[in-house]
Design brief:
The chain is of the alpha/beta class and 502 residues long. The protein has helices at residues 11-24, 36-46, 62-71, 87-95, 108-146, 152-161, 184-194, 219-228, 250-262, 289-298, 304-314, 317-321, 325-344, 352-361, 370-395, 399-411, 418-424, 429-440, 444-462, 467-473, 479-490, 494-500, and strands at residues 3-7, 29-33, 50-54, 77-82, 100-103, 172-179, 201-205, 211-215, 235-240, 272-274. It has 22 helices and 10 strands. Residues 3-119 form the Response regulatory domain.
């Protein structure tokens, strides 16, 4: 455990002290020297923790030995031996900050008392040293992970300063994420204890306060899973990188572990997820943009069932589960941008709960798993859906919309577009477009088609005008376009409609 050197020119004294120490402290390693010169050579070679030295010795006395150790910056706890007539020497030794001094002949209990005090101090000092090194390593490792442009040579130099081996047989990086109120430092201490006997393991807290582990042996993660899993109330997941040979590639392996950990969102029952098992999942380039737009357009209409059906189609779990996690992240981003962001500022203070949910749903990892996220997404959509329905009743009272609708119904037969109507009622084009869709439940083009077809139906049913003439009368110079639009809205041609209505 500790190493002790005994230096004394009297053979019986040095051997007697050695025998006492061996009996009382069997874990200690002891060395003996007959003078200061021999003691110095042994100290340089073996670096003992404690040096017990006589003051008067040939070749090099105890005072000179202490000075040599201080000059060479060799740190050891010094205990001096002296007789009653050596008090002057003892005073000189005390000036050099020796830990204690013992009178000859050495009393057994006094020796043990001194050694116990020194070992307690060494243990406390060692704990402080380990804690300081752990904190230093954590800060430097996070510096490596957070610095995108750090050179490999700089990384290599930092590892030397941190006293981290190069892992010649390769290493893995694992990240542990927990649910609940367990403190990160407490978990780190627990994992340090579990890995105490495992060589080549370095646990630390990353920037997100997650326990991150560099390990030469992947089996250490299996052991942690088993040990941590014994507490049924402790919910955790571990993402593990592939094996990497080059310690300078720590950032890459850390990102692999972080990516693997994300898949716990899709597979909440898996406690350990390996990067090698998810890295081949394909990226899906195209998002269901049209469906997302449909949902956005339907909000506030009487199409609640269609909204939910389209949402389930957008959030197709089978497709999501077989794709890269990037697909779900991009999907969430598209939903937020297309549907939610436009409503954020318009939700009043009375809708505080909706505000909070909107902020939370911006990041899928604010939820424990996919199903929790999906239900929150559906809930938020329905809240905004109801909100829009209420907003429509407000818009319907506005004179602008009344004027716009009246203008369209009076001038549908002309070359009409959104800009013309917006200009007529003196509203900004973009604002009017948005307000029109909120009020009507469909965009301007579709509404104009509906008005024109309604009037065409009346003319087909009540007059003898030719279809070509009716086409021009409702705003279509091209009869083929009129027929196409009519069929699109009614499902049959103008001719079929006239024949059906007699």
């Amino acid at each position: 455990m500790y190493k002790v050197l005994i230096a004394d020119d009297e053979k019986n004294i040095r051997l007697g002290i050695q025998a006492m120490i061996r009996r009382e402290y069997p874990d200690f390693t002891t060395f003996i020297a007959s003078d200061g010169q021999e003691a110095l050579e042994i100290i340089i070679e073996n670096e003992p923790d404690i040096v017990i030295t006589d003051i008067k010795m040939p070749r090099m006395d105890g005072i000179q030995l202490i000075k040599e150790l201080q000059q060479k910056e060799i740190k050891a706890s010094i205990v001096i031996l002296s007789g009653y007539d050596d008090f002057t020497y003892a005073k000189e030794a005390i000036k050099h900050k020796v830990r204690d001094y013992l009178l000859k002949p050495v009393n057994r209990s006094e020796l043990f008392k001194t050694l116990n005090l020194i070992t307690e101090e060494l243990e406390d000092s060692q704990k402080m040293t380990y804690q300081h090194m752990d904190e230093y390593r954590a800060s430097q490792l996070n510096y490596i992970l957070l610095n995108p442009n750090i050179q490999k040579e700089v990384v290599e130099d930092l590892y030397k300063k941190m006293k981290i081996d190069t892992y010649p047989d390769g290493y893995f990086v694992g990240i542990i994420e927990t649910e609940g109120k367990i403190e990160e430092e407490h978990l780190l201490d627990k994992i340090n204890q579990l890995l105490l006997s495992s060589n080549g393991c370095i646990p630390f807290l990353d920037k997100d306060r997650r326990v991150t582990i560099i390990s030469a042996d992947i089996e250490n993660f299996s052991m942690l899973k088993e040990q941590l899993g014994r507490d049924r109330h402790f919910v955790f997941s571990i993402g593990i990188s592939e094996k990497e040979q080059d310690i300078r590639e720590l950032k890459k392996t850390y990102e692999q572990a972080a990516t693997a950990l994300k898949y716990h969102f899709l597979y909440p029952r898996r406690q350990v997820i390996l990067y090698e098992n998810v890295k081949e999942k394909p990226d899906v380039a195209s998002l269901p943009v049209e469906l997302i737009n449909k949902i956005s357009n339907m909000l506030g209409t009487e199409r609640e069932k269609e909204i939910k059906t389209n949402l389930r189609q957008v959030m197709d779990f089978d497709l999501i589960a077989h794709s890269s996690i990037n697909y779900l992240e991009n999907l969430n981003m598209a939903i937020n941008e297309t549907i939610f962001k436009g409503f954020f500022k318009r939700l009043g203070e009375e809708s505080l709960a909706t505000f909070e949910l909107l902020n939370k749903i911006d990041n899928i990892y604010n939820f424990d798993n996919f199903h929790e996220y999906f239900h929150a997404l559906e809930d938020l959509l329905m809240r905004i859906h109801e909100y829009n329905k209420q907003m429509k009743s407000v818009y319907s009272e506005q004179k602008y919309m009344d004027r716009a609708i009246a203008y369209i119904r009076e001038n549908y037969h002309k070359d009409l577009n959104l800009a013309v109507v917006a200009n007529y009622i003196s509203l900004n084009y973009s604002y009017f477009s948005h307000m029109f869709k909120e009020y009507i439940g469909q965009n301007f083009v579709d509404y104009l088609k509906m008005v024109r077809v309604e009037n065409a139906k009346q003319l087909l049913k009540e007059t003898d005008f030719k279809i070509l003439e009716i086409s021009e009368m409702v705003g279509y110079k091209n009869p083929k376009q009129f027929a196409r639009v009519f069929r699109e809205v009614e499902g049959i041609s103008p001719k079929e409609y006239r024949e059906m209505k007699g």
